[in-house]
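Retro notes
What went well: the complex prediction finally ran end to end.
Inputs used:
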Amino acid sequence: MLEIDGVSKRFGSTVALDGMSLTVRPGELYGFVGANGAGKTTTMRIALGVLAADAGEVRLDGRPLDAASRRRIGYMPEERGLYPRMAVGTQLRYLAELRGRSAADARAAADRWTERLGIADRRGDEVQRLSLGNQQRVQLAAALVADPDVLVLDEPFSGLDPLAVDVMSEVLRERRDAGAPVVFSSHQLELVERLCDRVGIVRAGRAVAEGTVEELRDASAPELLVVAPHAPPGWADALPGVAGTRAAHEGTVVTLADPSDATLTAVLDAARRTGPVLEFRRLRPPLAEIYRDTVASTGTPAPPEAPGAAA
Amino acid sequence: MNGALRPVALIARREFASRVKGRAFIVGTLVVLLLLGVYAAVVATLASGEDTARVGVAGPAVALTGPLERAAPTEGLTLTVVPQPDVAAGEAAVRAGDLDALVAGDPIRPRVSVESEPDAALERVIVDATSAVARDAYLTGRGVDPAGLDAAVAESGPVVVSAEPPDPQAGQRLGLGLAGAFLLFFSIQTYGAMVAQGVVEEKASRVVEIVLSSVRPWQLLLGKVLGLGAVGLLQLVVLGGAGLAVAGAAGVLSGGAGLVSTVVSVVVWYLLGFALYATVFAAAGSLVSRQEDTQSVLSPITITVLLGFVVGFNLLTSDPRGTAITVISLLPPFSPLFMPARIALGVAPVGQVVLAFALTITFTAVVLALGGRIYANSVLRTGARVSLREAWGRARS
C-alpha cells in the first residue's frame, strides 16, 4: 500500500502541494487527475525521493519510504528521459542494476520486457535512433525492468499511438492483478474511467475528491434525463427538490437537489401531464463531467505553474 | 559489495565504458600520441643534427688542412677538408653547393670563397686554424717547439669546487617535471570538462530523474567522477608511457633520473587534482540544462586553471627554486599541477610536499562538500540557468 499523507511543498512563493493525501491499495489501479499545475508531478517526484517534501510523509506498506524501499518503485517521469547514446538493452540492464537487481536478473528482465513491448529487435540500437513511439516503449520498459512492487507513472499514455495505449493498459492491468499498487496520472479521462479502480482528483495541491468512479458519481449532484416532446420550456423549474434544468439530448436534463423518491415521482408526474414521456432515466455523468464539476465547485482555478517545477 | 557503493561502481563502470569505447577517446589519444611522436622526432633530429661542413683547400692554403681539422671539434663542427686542384675548380664547387667554403692563398691570410656568407662556426674554425698557423710560424721562428707549448697549455686550468654540484640529470628532471605538469593540466582540463558535459547531458536528456529515483545525488556524482577519472588516468598512463618510451628510444632519457618516483607522484597528484577539479566542474555543469550553456559556466574555471598553468609553467622553467613558484605550488588549486614537477626537479623540500598535500586534501574535502551540495540542489532543476545563490540557498531553506 502506498500512502501519501499530508505532503506539502513550496517553490519559493508558489505553493505546489498543500496537504496532499492519497492512498493506493495493493492490487488497485489508481488514476490521478487534475489540471496542469495542480500538483500531480510534484507529488510523484516527492514519492520517488527526487524532491524533498517540506512537510508530510510518504509510506510504503506502513513504513516511511527510504532509499532502499524507493528502489521497489517503478517510475516513469513526465519528462521522458533516457541516455540518448546508450543501446536499448544495455540501458535497461543498467537501470535494473541501479535498482539493485543482479546482472543476470537485469539481463533476463531487459530481454523479457523488450520482447513483451515489441522492441526486441531494437535492443542493440542507440535510443536516439528509435522513433518517438518506440522510445516511449523503452521508457515503459525502464519503469518495469527492475520488477517493481509499485508503479508510479506520470502521464504514461501521452504521446502513445492507439496500439501502444492498448499495450500500456494491458500491462498496467497485469501489474494490478499481480497485486501491485499502480498509480498513474492522465488527462485522458475516458481512459482513466475505463481503466481505474479508484480515482483521485487534485486541485491546487490538494486531493479534493477520491473514490471509485461510481462513488464520485453518487457524490456529485444526480441528474435525470426526461424526453417529453410536448413539454413547454421551464416545465420542471418550479418542482420541489429540483435544483435546475437545461435542454440537452433532445430532452430536458433535470438536476436534483434532493434525489428522494418523492422528488422522482413529482418530476415524472409533471412530465406525464405534458403528454407522452418517451424516456425517463438517471444520467450517468462521465468522469470528465464529474471532474469539471468537482474542480469548478472547489474554488478558484489553479495557480500558474512555477518555473522549473512542473506539477 | 556494500549496498551504498554498488550503484557508485555501476555508474563508474558505465561512464568508463561509454567513454573508452567512444570514438573521441580513441581518436583523441591517437592524435596526441602522433603529436608526441612528431615532437620527439623533431627533437631527436635537432639533437643529433650536429653541424657538418665541407671545406675545399687550394694552393698554399693546403697547409691549413691539419689546423682546420684540429680546430673543428672545439666548435662542435664535423669538418671534411677536400683538397682542390686549383682555385677555379674550388670556386665552381662552392657555387655548385658541393663545398661550403674554399680556402685559398696564404695560409695566414687566406682568401675564403663562400656562396653568400660563411657559417659562424665555420668562420671561427678558419680563424682558429689561421691563428694556429701564424702562432706556430712565430714560435718556430724563435726556436720554440709549438708542440711543447700545446702540452704545457693542456696541463693548465682551474680546479672548480662547487658547494652544490650541478645535477648532471637536471635537464632530464626538468623535462620530466614539465611533461608531468603538462599531462596533469591536459588530463584535468579534458576530463573535468567531460564530467561537466556528462552532468549537462543527463540534465538535458532528463534521464537524471530516473537515475535519481534509484540512487542518491552523491552516489551519481561520485560514480561519475570515479569513472571519468579512471578514463583520464588510463589516457595519462598511455600517453605518459608512450612519451617515456619515445624519449628512451631517442636517447633523450636515461633511467634513474627519478623516473619511477616521478611517475608515481604524477599519478597520485592526478588523482587528488582530478577529484578537486571534477567536483568543481560537476557543480558548475549542474547549474545549466542545455549543452549550449555549458561553456558559459565552465569558462571561469578553465580560464583560471589556464592562467595559473601558464604563469606556473614559466616560473618553473625560469626559476624553479624561486619564491613565486614555491607559493603557487603550495596553493591547493595549483599544487596538483606543479608540485609533481617540483618534486621531479628535486627542488621541493619534504616539508613543502607534505604541506601541499595536506592543504590540497583539506581543500578537496571542502570542495567536495560544497560542490556536492550545489550539484544535489540544482541537478533536477531544469529550464533557466540556476544561480549559485539559488543552488546554495535552496538547501538551507
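What we learned: DSSP finds 15 helices and four strands in chain B.
What to try next: split runs per interface for comparison.
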